[in-house]
Each structure stands twice: as structure tokens, then as C-alpha cells.
Design brief:
alpha/beta; four-stranded parallel β-sheet; 13 helices; 44% helix
Length: 327
Amino acid sequence: MGHFQKPVVVVSKCIEFEHCRWNGNIIKSPIVKILKSYVTFHPICAEVEIGLGVPRDPVRIVLESEKVKMIQPSTSKDCTLEMRNFAENFLDSLRHIDGFILKSQSPSCGLYQTKYYQSTKKGAPRLQYGPGLFGKTVLNKFPTKAIETEGRLTNFRIREHWLIKLFTFADFEYLKNNFSKHKLVDFHSKNKFLFMAYNQNLMRELGRIVANLNNLSDEESILKYEEKLMTLLQKPPEYTAHINALMHALGYFKMSLSHEEKAFFLDELEKYRVGWIPLFVLQNLLNSWITRFDEKYLVNQTYFKPYPEELMNFDLKDSWRGRPYWE
């Protein structure tokens, strides 16, 4: 695996692209900066698009009688309808998109942690957290796409899952645009271990679709496969599913490895199981054996390189296990 399709990603323009924050600032993001070489970005600033200038007085989300509104406290301007109309029209105009990187906590682009206030008054209490108006429309229209904020992407586990979804979706989009049933068989084959790690039951359902291609039209094949693929990649794998996939891969070398090498791998697997080492340590070890023994089937498995390795920015402070960030 060495060639990757270039995903298409909508990004908040204030992240590494333009000084368009309410105070005229720009947000630095190492992941967005490096992604510029691997992704086709569509930068957008929703607040500027509805006529708010740079710099501008900030807006906030206000809950009034359980209705979510976007208000500019300094002017009392209600931007709710303008923002919702822009979001609908802009997102409907997109021909194709693989993912989004939106500004965290923004009243327009935020996804999960935007503050909802009781009123526009200074010092008004926060009532709850939720998505901004543009971010909510993104989540409603593209619930299965690779969608994250630049803040959450600093977490290794979240970033890895987002990158896997992003590049898998981009690869599948290329397949759709150049479809043949043979290419769908190849796509499923090279992703078998990745899909096994994500959801073994759905992997088998995808396999049954591939096995039944002769009884389906091209359109039916794409629609059925894509629906299951989106569901399969919705949540990241459990560590136990990764262990299952790794043990399956180890089986390809049972006649080639020494007893000591197998024992070493199993020891490292136990370290991963208890959370001492990250997954890619084991994947890299298997990769070395794939090269050493010229294992033809595994060499093309996306599981061992699901996205460009230059994007593997791992820091020891990062978390590769822990709480479920997607619930």
C-alpha cells in the first residue's frame, strides 16, 4: 500500500487558512497544516459568509423558550435564520465531500462543546453544551462522514479513527466513479483486516454483498455496500477486535516464525491488551514480517497502513485507549 486517494474536506477557514476569527486571529493546528499536502480543503467561514465582518463583535448561542438562536449581544442582531439558510444552501451545493474539520466551541461551527446561554446579558449562565448552528446542520446532513473539530483531533485515538474513515471514504468514492464489480471485490479484499477490526459481523455482511454481485445491478451493488460500509466505520474498534485481527494476521506466519518470535509477539500483544503500548507497535512488527517473508496477501491490506504514514504524529502524551469519545 503506497498510493492514497486525496479526500475532500470542508474546514473552518480560521484554522490555518485565514485571519477571520471574530477578533481577527487565526487558529494554529498542526494536523490541518500537515494535511494540506494530502487533502483537498474547502475553507469556509460561516459567520463571514452571512455578512459579519472581520473583526466583528462575537455572537453566542442563546436558548429562548427551548429554541436555539444565534444572537450578537452587542447589537441584539438575530443571525439564526441567516446562518441556517447559509448552512443549508452551502452544504446542499457540495457535489462530494469526505469529511469536515470545524472550529471547536464555535457558535457557528462547533460540534459538541458550544456553550448555550440563558440570555445575551453579560454574565448570563450557561444552560448546556451542544453544536453550533452550522455544525448542527453538518451533523444532520452528513451523519456518517468523517467529522471532527480541530480540538478533538489533538487526541491520537480520535485522530486515527477520523483519518481511517476519511481515507477509506475517499478510496470508495474513487471506486464509485470508476466502478466495476471486479474493483469492488478488490476493494473488499484489501480492506478485509481493517473491516474485521471494526466490526466482524458487518464485515461478513459486506462479504455476502460481494459474493452476490452477479445477482445485483451496479447501482444496487454500490448502494448496498456503501450503506454497510458507512455503518461499519461509524465507531472505532474495540481493542479486543484489534487483537482478533492481529491474531489472524499472525496465523499467516505460523510456519515461518521461530518459537521465540511468536512468544515475543504474544508478549507485546498482552502489553497492548492492558494498555501499555499503542496498536501501531504490533502493526509495525507484522509489517516487518510481511516484508521479510514477502507475504503477498497481507502486503496489500489497508489495516497495516490505512492512511499516509506521514500523518502518524504520535506523542507519548496521547491516549490510544480510554473513555468512549463517540458516545
